[in-house]
Amino acid sequence: MVVGAVVSSKGQVTLPKALRDALQIEEGDRIFFRIEIDHVVIEKPKNFLDLAGTIEVPAHLRNLTWDEIVSRAYASENE
Fold first, then answer.
1. Is residue 2 part of a domain?
2. Are strands 32-36 and 39-43 parallel, antiparallel or unpaired?
3. Is residue 45 part of a domain?
4. Are 30 and 45 in contact (CB under 8 A)?
């Protein structure tokens, strides 16, 4: 499917209804834009686990337990 849209002066684009229908995008849904060399892919994640890998994690923060992640998050809030 190929559908077009116009970019506004503020850089905004309204997702065409055909695209929203095809991806089952509703008001309030989160979508992601991924750049692939010379084009953009729009995705609607299926669930929380589908977000895995979408954010680059610095090497020193990898392989932490959930408790360590929460502890560090609270510690950084209180700095």
1. no
2. antiparallel
3. yes
4. yes
